[in-house]
Amino acid sequence: VLAFTTDRARAGGGVYTLGFTTEAQVARVARAAAFRGLTRVAVLAPQDAHGQAAARAWDGAARRHGIATVARGVLAGDADLAARNLAATPADAVFLPAGGTEAVGAARALRGAGFAGALLGTGLWDDPAVLGAAALEGGLYAAPDPAGRSAFEARYAALYGAPPPRLATLAYDAVALAAALARTAEPKADPFAAARLTDPSGFAGLDGLFRFGPDGVAERGLAILEIRSGRAFVAEPGPAAF
Fold first, then answer.
1. pTM for the full model?
2. Which residues of the chain are in CATH 3.40.50.2300 domains?
3. What are the DSSP calls for 118-164, one per residue?
């Protein structure tokens, strides 16, 4: 079963998850931060499940990349107060794993409190409402390279008169993977054997490279995107191979 979920607990026992895990996104943006010399980072996370999972993932990723977490805040009501507290710390950047109006409001509060450092996020920022916010200009986040799916989105829009839902590329990749495995299997062999699904070389999809680990969770070759003038530009491309 190929599942369209980011919930790692669903993987295993013949279930393979295609979603973009929080842990992978956080690890990728932490690596990008370290590469840019952003070694003192504050965390401002929502109190919801995604925010707290991202904050926990940040701890491990930061340690691996030599980043000190210099302060923590929780987005729960008064964003201005949390922003003022973090702006007073010696942080080079703030990791903000929020989306939509919550991300925009927190970024505005941080800038209003005088924080001039970098802002780091997750794929929740891959949203026109976030990309268009002046307070998030220059922000960096981990997500698939949009070039891989742009042609598909154009064809879909031309055919149906509307952009595809975000899950459409996952569905396309799932069907394409199943078809490729069935087409290339040896006669009488199981085309969907675990050894084939967990090929370490992985597979090329509309959302970039991916491969399944023995636990059934997809590892994704994510890019780093930078927000500039209301759009997302590729600051670091995803890997060409695993």
1. 0.91
2. 2-20+147-220, 22-143
3. EEEE-GGG-SHHHHT-GGGTT-EEEE--THHHHHHHHHHHHHHSSPP
- CATH code linked to domain 22-143: 3.40.50.2300
User: What would the pLDDT profile of 93-121 be if each residue is shown by its tens digit?
Assistant: 999 999 999 999 999 999 999 999 999 99
Angular region, 37: left φ>0, alpha ψ -120 to 50, beta rest: left
Q: Report helix angle 147-160 to 168-184, nearest 10.
A: 100
Could you tell me if 117 and 174 are in contact, meaning their C-beta atoms sit under 8 angstroms apart?
no
C-alpha span between 232 and 59 (Å, rounded): 26
* Cα–Cα distance for residue pair 232/227, rounded to 1 Å: 5
Single out the residue of 181, 178, 155, 180 nearest to residue 168, CA to CA. Answer: 155
Crossing angle between the packed helical segments 100-112 and 79-87, to the nearest 10 degrees = 50
| CATH code of the domain made up of 2-20+147-220 | 3.40.50.2300
